[in-house]
Automatic annotation (TrEMBL):
Pathway: Amine and polyamine biosynthesis; ectoine biosynthesis; L-ectoine from L-aspartate 4-semialdehyde: step 2/3. Its EC number is 2.3.1.178. It comes from the Bacteria. PROSITE patterns: GNAT. This is L-2,4-diaminobutyric acid acetyltransferase. It is an enzyme of class 2 (transferase).
Length: 163
């Protein structure tokens, strides 16, 4: 097994393996293979795949919000269970924020459910590392947006940074 995990922009051919990784990473919502394929293709510049020996073990999907291009929205972060706790998620976010395609990005947003301790830890850690403030507000609400079928998603805003 290779020691190194290679981080890079995904390609469309990674879509199917990304789909399988997401399915292994509860509690992430699963999307269609086609959706993951589009993330890997159209949103490659704002997404990251982590590969060990060609196997997809980590993934970050994101995009710049069309009406606020200074804001990177991080859609999902997934790390295979055997690779967790070694900083891979933090490294993927760092790798993404250092890309040339992030020129002009000064804010990061994501949404997190209240009970996802690992995700809160990941983004609190990122805010500290970027020396940027983090604010959180109710965003997509359990009843109003999900008809009670999904926990409330909190909006997390980190920034401004790079200013
Ligand atoms: C969340 C997730 C991506 C973190 O991946 P990871 O590579 O293990 O994270 P890192 O090693 O980079 O750790 C980042 C920070 O989170 C902390 N952390 C990681 N897992 C944790 C857990 N289960 N509980 C509490 N804190 C945790 C780490 O200690 C670290 O903080 P520190 O640097 O202050 O010590 C991974 O657990 C995962 O894929 N979970 C399932 C999917 C999910 O919930 N994704 C996030 C929602 S988009």
């Amino acid at each position: 097994m290779s020691k190194e995990i290679e981080l890079k922009a995904p390609e469309s051919r990674d879509g199917n393996a990304v789909h399988q990784l997401i399915a292994r990473c509860k509690p992430l919502d699963e999307n269609s293979v086609y959706c993951n394929l589009l993330q890997c293709d159209h949103f490659a510049n704002t997404s990251v795949v982590g590969k060990r020996d060609e196997a997809v073990v980590g993934f970050v999907s994101g995009y710049r919000i069309p009406s606020r291009m200074n804001t990177l929205f991080v859609w999902q972060v997934a790390v295979d269970s055997g690779e967790r706790g070694t900083g891979l998620a933090s490294k993927m976010l760092g790798h993404l924020l250092e890309r040339d395609s992030m020129n002009g990005v000064s804010m990061l947003e994501t949404t997190i459910t209240k009970d996802n301790d690992a995700s809160w830890a990941l983004f609190n850690r990122l805010a500290k590392r970027m020396n940027a403030p983090l604010e959180k507000t109710h965003h997509y609400e359990a009843d109003a947006h999900f008809n009670g079928a999904h926990d409330t998603e909190w909006l997390v805003r980190i920034g401004p940074f790079n200013s």
